[in-house]
Amino acid sequence: MKPVFGRRPRSGGFTLLEVLVALAIFATVAAVVLSAAGRSLTNAMRLEEKTLAGWIADNRITELQLANPSPGEGRENKELEYAGRRWETLSEIEATSDPGMRRVTVWVAPRPERSSGTPLRDRAVVSLTGFIGVR
């Protein structure tokens, strides 16, 4: 092929404009993917926290059900380490209409780094209610 006067033959590469458009599309897609991954990670951490707190609450109710003698009415705060984290629990035991049963509600929250002054009930990730028999 002979070059036409004043025109260069096309080399087959991308123009600067095409490269910039491709980079803009890639950057947009990357931002969306990173945002979705961040939300997914946050949701996974929240689910893990709720699962661990649920196990702690269930364990606490089981401890109270197995206690001999049966615990009386009242509240008890406890701190514990579970799964490599610090947790706080609040157990509240109340009378029911059946004198042989008591209602137990357990609230579980991660232990904050600094005291926030917020009551444990308001910070709780999980609350669980169960019943214990009076022996």
From TrEMBL:
What are the leading ranks of the lineage?
A: Bacteria, Pseudomonadati, Pseudomonadota, Gammaproteobacteria, Pseudomonadales
One GO biological process term is: protein secretion by the type II secretion system
Source organism: Pseudomonas indica
The organism's superkingdom is given as Bacteria
Concerning SUPFAM superfamilies, the annotation shows: Pili subunits
UniProt PTM: Cleaved by prepilin peptidase.
Which ranges carry the Type II secretion system protein GspI C-terminal domain? 47-132
**Database matches in Gene3D superfamilies:** GSPII I/J protein-like
Compartment(s) of residence: Cell inner membrane
The protein's job, in short, is: Component of the type II secretion system required for the energy-dependent secretion of extracellular factors such as proteases and toxins from the periplasm.
Q: Which NCBIfam families match?
A: gspI, IV_pilin_GFxxxE
Q: Which family does it belong to?
A: Belongs to the GSP I family.
Q: Which PANTHER family match?
A: TYPE II SECRETION SYSTEM PROTEIN I-RELATED
Q: Where are the transmembrane segments?
A: 12-37
The UniProt entry lists membrane topology as:
Single-pass membrane protein
Q: Name one GO cellular component term.
A: plasma membrane
Entry protein name? Type II secretion system protein I
InterPro entries attached to this UniProt entry = N_methyl_site (IPR012902), Pilin-like (IPR045584), T2SS_GspI_C (IPR003413), T2SS_protein-GspI (IPR010052)
Q: How does it assemble?
A: Type II secretion is composed of four main components: the outer membrane complex, the inner membrane complex, the cytoplasmic secretion ATPase and the periplasm-spanning pseudopilus.
Q: Which UniProt keywords apply?
A: Cell inner membrane, Cell membrane, Membrane, Methylation, Transmembrane, Transmembrane helix
One Pfam family recorded for the sequence: N_methyl
